[in-house]
Automatic annotation (TrEMBL):
InterPro entries, A to Z: Kinase-like_dom_sf (IPR011009), Prot_kinase_dom (IPR000719), Ser-Thr/Tyr_kinase_cat_dom (IPR001245)
PROSITE patterns: PROTEIN_KINASE_DOM
Keywords, sorted A to Z: ATP-binding, Nucleotide-binding
Secretion signal span: none
UniProt xrefs under SUPFAM superfamilies: Protein kinase-like (PK-like) (SSF56112)
UniProt-listed PANTHER family: INTERLEUKIN-1 RECEPTOR-ASSOCIATED KINASE-LIKE 2, OS01G0253100 PROTEIN
Domain named Protein kinase: residues: 1-80
Protein name: Interleukin-1 receptor-associated kinase-like 2
Organism per entry: Saguinus oedipus
Length: 80
């Protein structure tokens, strides 16, 4: 894996990569507040996010994808 570091506030850094025969995975920093999916659905102890905050998150995601495309980085999926 080439040594590449991207610096954008909406992109998590990749700490490592594992490429086994039938299983590939990236290693990211631990996110203590849970997943975005949990927050959107109001699972756990959090209430569902209000619409203005959801729109802000979508805007940040689009900025991050635009940044990655500008660096010609190919991404395979964007999780919800």
């Amino acid at each position: 894996m080439p040594d590449f570091r991207c610096c954008h506030p909406n992109v998590l850094p990749v700490l490592g990569f594992c490429a086994a025969r039938q299983f590939h995975s990236f290693i990211y920093p631990y996110m203590a507040n849970g997943s975005l999916q949990d927050r959107l659905q109001g699972q756990g102890s959090s209430d569902p996010l209000p619409w203005p905050q959801r729109v802000s998150i979508c805007s940040g995601l689009l900025c991050a994808v635009e940044y990655l495309h500008g660096l010609e980085i190919i991404h395979s999926n964007v999780k919800r």
